[in-house]
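Margin note from the TA: students keep mixing up input and output lines. Inputs are the sequences; the output is the structure of the whole complex. Example:
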Amino acid sequence: MKRVLIVIAVGFLLAVLPFIVSGYWLGLITQAVILGGFAMGLDLLVGFARMPSIGHSTFFGLSGYGVALAVTRFDVAIWPAVGIGLLLSLIAALLFGPLAVRMRGLAFLTITLAFGQLTWGLTTRWSSFTNGENGIPGISRPSFLWDIETVVGYFYFTLLIAIAISIFIIIFAESPVGISLLGVRNSDTRMSALGYNIHSRRTIAFVVAAAVGAMYGILNVFYNKFIGPGSLSWQLSAQMLLSVVVGGPVSLWGPFLAGSGIVILKTMLIGTTQRWPMVLGLLYVVSVVFLPGGIASLLPKVRARFEKMFRGRVTE
Amino acid sequence: MRFWIFQLLNGLTTGALLFFVASGLTVVFGLMRILNLSHGALFLLGGYVGLSVQHFTGNFFLAALAGAATSGLMGLLLQQTFTRTLLGSTFNQVLLTLGIAFILNNGMLAIWGGLPQKLKTPDFLSESISVFGVTYPSYRLFLIVLAFAAGLALWVFWERSTLGAVVRSCVDDREMAAAMGIRVDLVFASVFAIGASMAGLTGVLGGPVLGVYIGLDFEVLLLAVVVVVIGGIGSLNGAFVGSMMVGLIDTFGKASFPEISYFTLFAPVILILLLRPLGLFGRILPE
Amino acid sequence: MIANAHQSEHVSLLSIRDISVQFGGLLALNAVNLDVNAGARYGILGPNGAGKTTLFNAISGFVDPSKGEIKLNSKKLDGLPSHERVLRGLSRTFQITTLFPELSVLENVLMAAQVDAGKHQVFWRAANSHKEVMQRVEAQLVDLNLSRLALSTVSALSYGEQRLLEIAVALASKPSVLLLDEPTAGLSAAEMRSVVDLILKLPQDLTIVLIEHDLDVVFDVSEELSVLHFGNMIAQGPASQIREDPLVREVYLGEA
């Protein structure tokens, strides 16, 4: 419950940003919130269940494509198109998930990569339908309680949804299902000897992370008013994986912070240098070699998160 | 009919190049449990170095030699610098080698620029010759023959030679091999370097066919990873069969169904993995 | 064999008929029969490699027998995945400690208790907010003298404490049949004594099947015994009778 309050408090703090920063920065922060939130959801799969997916941008991009294609190809109204986009990602996750979770470690990594490339290939090569490498421009934002066409309006829209999703993730993470994902990472034998269906637990982690990605994918497509194959590239998946590891697996806030930070760093650097991939590469190397526990491990108290969570109960 | 023969040869050429790259990747993977995601970058590095050497000397063989040597040394350097991380968790391995891949990729962009380039075929292989009624570049035929020869040579080395037995013993049981007095660290370093130099060599060999350009590193890496996974981790036979399969599927897919060619490549891969999670020639590797 | 005859007249809680397990060319279990009555303290004895753990694996669903039948409460278990057998009332420990090393003692027990309480599918409220589950976890920890360690990470526990926790976790599933796979393996004499005391203190209606290497422990705990030798059940009967069985003395106790 405390963590839920923290999320709401942080949300209120961020809500004053439009009064402080410029429109350029506000737009950048909106993007940062989107990718940070995506990384936070991926933490459930990569951090909690320790399943290294390098294909979860698939669900981020697929929901965006769902919206874009429904609107441009089939003249669907925007809100129903959102539903179609989410559904498309969810169906893909339910299709890929149960198959992928049968693999472990590097094999899991490779099969998620294969699934990701399969969808990426469809969006880039099936030009007559998806417009190929050029992507689909001109997607207008839906109408909402307030005007979300403006930078400020869309920032608040993103913030509201990000807060809702984050609260869901935190409640989920502390729930019986959430902590069972922590069990799956260590010992299959023990978990099934306790009565857990391993495959279904791993599938839950896979699908929930995908669903969170899909929702942020919708926010992403409306932010850019455009969708292209880049949003389901394996490079984006890798960047998300990096965000979880750099942020600190299982901390949830760490991956959010790292995911957002990378977006801001990238935008700032791309303006000044062509060496962004090198900086990103160095970030990978340096964080793995020097900070294996991630940013979150810098705060010693975080390690004891579950201790705190249960202390009140036990000593009662 | 001519279309099919032509595509068949194209597929075998791609398969041949893939085999040179994937054999190194799979042996390193099987031997050290390292999925080296910078393998594609090492491939491209070889290609670029070869390009420059050919530009200055005009000699293809010098180019091939230089490409192989540079990538081999780079591989050795990486392996020695990051030994501990590389033997650690899957996550760290993946992120580290991916990071290196990005750094090399961007470094090569800085040195050689973003324009796609091509190596010239060596003079004596620049003609086309007629096979099964189609006119086909002799250089590509040379690559196909070379792949079969190399496959055979590697197989003989692996299965029949003492050195091959040493390496295999390290795959099967690291500790037992060490207990028998085998310098496992030396075997690891050499195999890593040889795998990297094979990748670099292939970058040069593939230069006249695929060209040399930024982005090819990740394309090749992706195909090579697919080969390793469907062939079975650590299996040379698997790498050979997998390379030829992927080469043919990719070529025929692109030629026949260009719009869904990625689908035609990855759908069979996923199917194979589901039916045989360990790949065609895979077996469970000891931890 | 004699004991078998009178047992088959009434229905036993756990009944195993003609179970064989094959690993490649090796016959790990050869047509083994076993009947365990409700509330029994049943010991399985046998040298290393006799197939004791394989028998447990077959009962708990980690290994598929090539033939035979396993019934719990007259209901067939064959073909059920291991996690569903737990829901039928079967729980086990492992010879090699199988806990969640990164989680606390409390979380380890909670992981088991929330399944039995039927809360393991809940995703909308915190795991520690289910009062009845938490009370049960606490009670379990108190019973096994582990409450002072409740918040310690498992990897920080001593080996003896981990073995105890292994039992606590298995008990938290509230099984009707508890399979203990060498619970005292690798323990010091004092630690061994405390584990034996713990087993003796367990509720009388809990059925326990125990694999043990240590003869003193087996004869202390179990009233009835089966002896496995190279996958064959070579003797079954009351503890006192097994102790005197000449065949058992020959193959197991090493007497001519």
